[in-house]
Amino acid sequence: MTVAQQLWIPGMHAAAAERRAGYAALRPMLASLLAGEHDLIANAANTAALLFASVPELNWLGFYFLKGGELVVGPFQGKPACVRIALGKGVCGTAAATRATMVVPDVHAFAGHIACDAASRSEIVIPLLRGDALLGVLDIDSPLPARFDEVDRAGLEELARVFLCSLEAN
Ligand code: SME
């Protein structure tokens, strides 16, 4: 394993092209960090640590994995979080149930939002699919309203794919 050099992606007010380039540069760093290792928890932990250190303006970033029909918290960075979320509940449970990325510009306006950290103002949740099977979700919170847009969605979905590819030998 090579420990990737950390990278600071430009913040939400930077030009879209710069933010896109930041995500593009982070992809090979994540791939290099995970290279040769296929363990789910190890790779989720390193993915959470690299992304939280590299993407600015976040207060929580981590994984929920589908276990026994509900989401259970996995490796994360940030304050202690809710452990179990039912499918269809909150932003995470909605992304898991619909298998679609959820971008929520104002969590206070999202009916059923589960507030783990009162500082969170906006959120993006990316479902993690292995073939037809739902593995879980990648959940990212920001203390800034409307922190995530289409650039973040595309960039983070690509990074989630790098994480999923790292598990392939399992
Ligand atoms: N806000 C999430 C719950 C998880 S915490 O943000 C870590 C939700 O509504 O599903």
Name of the CATH superfamily? GAF domain
The CATH class label is Alpha Beta
The portion of residues assigned to helices is 25-40%
What does the oligomeric state look like here? single chain
Helix and strand string, N-terminal first?
A: HHEEEHEEEH
Distance between the ends: 17 Å
Q: Give the strand order of the largest sheet, numbering strands 1, 2, ... along the chain.
A: 3-2-1-6-5-4
Shape: globular
Task: Find the structural class using helix and strand composition.
Answer: alpha+beta
Q: Work out the count of structural domains.
A: 1
Ligands:
methionine sulfoxide
Number of strands: 6
Structure summarized in a few sentences:
With 170 residues, this protein is of the alpha+beta class. The protein has helices at 16-34, 40-54, 90-98, 150-166; strands at residues 60-67, 70-78, 84-86, 102-104, 122-130, 133-142. The protein binds methionine sulfoxide (SME).
Describe this structure in words.
The protein has 170 residues and is α+β, with helices and mostly antiparallel strands. The chain has a single domain, classed as 2-Layer Sandwich (Beta-Lactamase). The chain has four helices and six strands. A six-stranded antiparallel β-sheet has the order 3-2-1-6-5-4, sandwiched between helices. Strand 5 and strand 6 form a beta hairpin. Helix 1 (16-34) runs antiparallel to helix 2 (40-54) and helix 1 packs parallel to helix 4 (150-166). The longest helix has 19 residues, at 16-34. The mean pLDDT is 95. The chain binds methionine sulfoxide. The site of methionine sulfoxide has 15 residues, from helix 3 and strand 6.
